[in-house]
Amino acid sequence: MLSTRSKQLFFQFSSQIKRLQSTLIIAEHNNEALLPITQNALTAAKKLGGEVTVLVAGTKCGPAVEAVSKSSGLARVLVAESDAFKGFTAESLTPLVLASQKQFNFTHIIAGASAFGKALLPRVAAKLDVSPVSDVIGIKSADTFIRTVYAGNAIQTLTATDPVKVLTIRGTSFEADKLEGGSASAEKLSGEYKTDLTTFISQELSKSDRPELTSAKAVVSGGRGMKSGDNFKLLYALADKLNAAVGASRAAVDAGFVPNDLQVGQTGKIVAPDLYIAVGISGAIQHLAGMKDSKTIVAINKDPEAPIFQVSDYGLVADLFKAVPELTEKL
Ligand SMILES: Cc1cc2nc3c(=O)[nH]c(=O)nc-3n(C[C@H](O)[C@H](O)[C@H](O)COP(=O)(O)OP(=O)(O)OC[C@H]3O[C@@H](n4cnc5c(N)ncnc54)[C@H](O)[C@@H]3O)c2cc1C
Question: Which domains does the chain have, with CATH numbers?
Answer without folding.
Answer: 18-188 (3.40.50.620), 213-330 (3.40.50.1220)
